[in-house]
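Re: weekly structure request thread

Next one in the queue (125 aa):
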Amino acid sequence: MLAFPLHALLDHWLTEPQLLLAITLLFSLGVWACGRTGDTLGVSDHGGMNWDEVVAFMLVLVFTPAGFGWQVFAFCAFRFFDIVKPPPIRRVDRNVKGGFGAMLDDVLAACYTVLLVAVVARVVG
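Done, posted below.
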């Protein structure tokens, strides 16, 4: 849920290219933070870490049509893909460790979400 206000704040102050750059920087920060936290906790992608989901969902919000309904749909779709982990997300989750692996599987779930939102928007739009 932190992604909603964070995205709204950054979206208010930044252009779309600047916002994408900020998300890229937050991803890089997440690789470091999740890697360090995972090492400390002894679990590569500990369930208590959620920066990976925050950054990935911020990316989704960049490409989600305006409106509360679209944001709810995108959030539910993202959670679905993050939990179910369809191929190749599950393979990445199992095989890519460390901070990069923790961040990457959520970015892949974000990509699935953006594709689904685009398809649905085209069908209903």
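The helical segments are 3-13, 16-41, 51-63, 68-84, 89-95, 98-124. The mean pLDDT is 95.
Next request, please.
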